[in-house]
Inverse folding.
């Protein structure tokens, strides 16, 4: 048992360790200015990402991401439920939605800058307007696919309005909604970084580009690492939330598969 | 038929709204020009050689990047699944590298390649590679153990099993990966052009923005959206064509 656990953890850490060692060794004597030794990057890390910098750059970025993402989730689920519930509404909206979804979200940055300047509002709106489409379209699909027998049953028992929404429609669409939320998260991170690279005076994206423009290469590398870590951590948090909220669904799937 | 009519009505209402809102002064015309002005700006763009060059550049970056990512993703996915223990050994690394936002590589791309095509390719390939790889891994996992054992007992070699058992099972997943990757590749291609300034539609949008040519900017954004739409529809068509033999597609046709 213990041996198997050890073997399993060996599998988890072996390759990452090998990769880091290879990077460390290969870059050790590097004089190429663009590929500094990993040692230099690690040494620079604590000097660059001080508590002060976390407060002035990382926290504002994250707050903007959170605000935009929450707004997108709210609007996406609400609109998606309405569009998914009524066949006629869906038919009217479908071509427009298909087009709006296909617009690559980063091109919204210049448009939204016209309206909202370069402040926090602009970034939050950019993030929200990019994240809303996957959530909206997945909600529509999820609401549309609600089991018709359950819908009929609910009707026979006189379950309607908010109760129907709360106990039947939203739970049964939630796996799809979460699939949309997951797509939206990676789009949100991209837009957070881009909106800051375009126009900002703080934030992670802004800082990394500043480093690059001033040729502070090891500092820039630490910024890339921070962005990578951030993407990884956010996806871990998302998985934890998903596992908690959709626990019943995964359990159900596991039992049906076993039987 | 009724759905088509309703959809057309929705589209017409959307365009009319775009015309009416700025005309009625609800938003400034300088920020949001009416549909007709965007349309005429689009007409001007279509007769401009620079526009077609930019479109060609964007499509080149998109297609090349997507092709590289699909080949690399499928090859890596099959190798990782077929070689014993490799799947378990790479799982943690893949889970770590996949969520890293590809835009984090923008500063590196600028330093290494400037505004060349290779900058665009770096971002496009990094972003779309994971989509294909993950779907390939899922697909290979889905192989029916009975079919695999049967193939083994009939003495099929590794290559024959990959070709006749693994590939048909994985193909639907791979096609899903390709469809997702095609959309992501366009986003990243346009992003690279917009932020780095590599030649293409994104760069044209940035130029239009800095020169305050607002209707042109909207026209280019419409083009970007139409391009995305064509790519989505095209990817779905290719998917149906490649999976014409598959149950999921045959079932839909029969009904």
């Amino acid at each position: 048992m213990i041996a198997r656990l050890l073997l399993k953890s060996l599998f988890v850490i072996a390759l990452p360790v090998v990769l880091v060692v290879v990077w460390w060794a290969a870059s050790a004597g590097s004089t190429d200015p663009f590929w500094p030794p990993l040692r230099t990057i690690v040494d620079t890390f604590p000097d660059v990402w001080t508590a002060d910098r976390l407060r002035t750059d990382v926290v504002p970025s994250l707050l903007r991401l959170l605000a935009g993402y929450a707004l997108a989730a709210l609007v996406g689920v609400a609109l998606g439920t309405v569009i998914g519930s009524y066949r006629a509404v869906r038919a009217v909206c479908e071509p427009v939605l298909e087009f709006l979804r296909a617009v690559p979200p980063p091109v919204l940055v210049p448009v939204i800058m016209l309206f909202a300047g370069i402040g926090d509002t602009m970034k939050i709106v950019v993030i929200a307007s990019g994240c809303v489409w996957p959530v909206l379209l997945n909600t529509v699909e999820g609401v549309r696919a609600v089991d018709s027998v359950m819908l009929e049953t609910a009707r026979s028992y006189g379950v309607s309005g908010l109760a129907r929404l709360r106990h039947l429609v939203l739970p049964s669409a939630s796996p799809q909604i979460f699939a949309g939320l997951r797509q939206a998260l990676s789009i949100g991170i991209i837009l957070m970084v881009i909106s800051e690279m375009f126009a900002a005076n703080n934030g992670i994206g802004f800082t990394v580009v500043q480093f690059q423009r001033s040729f502070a290469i090891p500092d820039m590398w630490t910024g890339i690492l921070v962005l990578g870590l951030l993407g990884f951590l956010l996806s871990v948090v998302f998985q934890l939330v998903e596992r908690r909220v959709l626990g019943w669904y995964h359990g159900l799937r596991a039992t049906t598969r076993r039987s | 038929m009724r759905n088509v009519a309703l959809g057309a009505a929705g589209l017409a209402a959307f365009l009319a709204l775009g015309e009416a809102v700025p005309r009625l002064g609800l938003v400034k015309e300088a920020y949001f020009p009416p549909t007709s002005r965007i349309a005429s700006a689009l007409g001007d763009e279509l007769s401009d050689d620079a526009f077609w060059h930019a479109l060609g550049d964007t499509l080149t970056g998109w297609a090349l990047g997507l092709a590289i990512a699909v080949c690399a993703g499928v090859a890596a996915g099959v190798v990782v699944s077929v070689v014993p223990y490799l799947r378990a050994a790479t799982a943690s690394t893949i889970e770590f590298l996949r969520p890293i936002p590809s835009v984090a590589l923008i500063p590196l791309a600028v330093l290494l390649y400037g505004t060349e095509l290779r900058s665009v390719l770096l971002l496009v390939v990094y972003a779309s590679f994971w989509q294909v790889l993950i779907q390939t891994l899922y697909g290979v996992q889905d192989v029916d153990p009975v079919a695999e054992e049967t193939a083994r007992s009939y003495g099929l070699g590794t290559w024959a099993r990959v070709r006749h058992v693994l590939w048909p099972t994985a193909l639907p997943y791979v096609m899903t990966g390709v469809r997702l990757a095609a959309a992501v590749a366009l986003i990243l291609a346009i992003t690279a052009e917009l932020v780095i300034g590599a030649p293409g539609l994104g760069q044209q949008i940035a130029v239009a923005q800095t020169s305050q040519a607002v209707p042109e900017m909207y026209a280019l954004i419409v083009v970007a959206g139409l391009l995305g739409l064509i790519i989505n529809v095209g990817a779905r068509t290719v998917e149906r064509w490649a999976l014409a033999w598959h149950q999921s597609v045959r079932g839909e046709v029969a009904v």
Observations:
- Chain A touches chain B through 56 residues (CB under 8 Å).
- The CA atoms of residues 18 and 24 of chain A lie 10 Å apart.
- The mean pLDDT of chain A is 87.
- Residues 49-203 of chain A form a domain with the MetI-like fold fold (CATH 1.10.3720.10).
